[in-house]
Amino acid sequence: MTHLHRTLPLLAALLLTPSLAVVAADNSQAIANVQAQLKTPFHQTELEQDKSRLPLKMVEFLGITPGMTIMDMGAGSGYSTEILSAAVGSKGMVYAQNNHHMETMADGKYLKQLHDRIDGAKLTNVQAVIWEMDAIPLHNQLDLVFWGNNIHDYYNSLGEAETLKILKNVYQALKPGATFAVVDHVGSAGNNNDKLHRIEPHVITELLEQAGFIEQTTSDIYHNPQDNHQLSVFDEQIMGHTDRYFVKAVKP
């Protein structure tokens, strides 16, 4: 289910967006591209992740269409990169962004996995880049930025001001009318969300507003009522199945 919190005036929306029928058809093609990718021999080791990451529903909610230029922010080993790469097709492009910390984290294991994925899955439309989160060297170039399960680390360790620097840099990198999507593990007030690796949804919403984004829309595809928000996201009882908040917002 999708929920719309804030919308542009109707006339402005019509001027900014193409025909809904055309967008829906193009999104269907992106979903079909991902369906094909999920069946490739390379992807078969990811089938367990697919159950919780829900790649087809993710691409549908994001409204991805072939030919888009996208950044997978904090790409890690590149699961989302692979999905986004398939969705945008051969005429699109995906920046798989990691920061310098990832070069040494776990002795570079995650970056090696990313490059192995790019080579093994033949993701020819992916460019792996090392950019700091608040120093993305793009300006009005991206149609979509996807940031998965990572904003909590920055907010909890660096605070609001530093996290806003990151979001404002993303804002600059996006084209007018483009989408910034954030998903993260739900935290609750009164809990040690830093230790649990969680964040309260209203914090994300407020940060997006402060950074200048509008028209926030949420999806409940990652909602899990069995998660009481009391456990670390790495606890075996909930790992991979946390209750996650998924929101997309628009750069006006």
TrEMBL record:
InterPro entries xref list: SAM-dependent_MTases_sf (IPR029063)
A Pfam family recorded for this sequence: PCMT
UniProt signal peptide: 1-24
Keywords carried by this UniProt record: Signal
Protein name as annotated: Methyltransferase type 11 domain-containing protein
Source organism per UniProt: Shewanella electrica
Source species taxonomy: Bacteria, Pseudomonadati, Pseudomonadota, Gammaproteobacteria, Alteromonadales
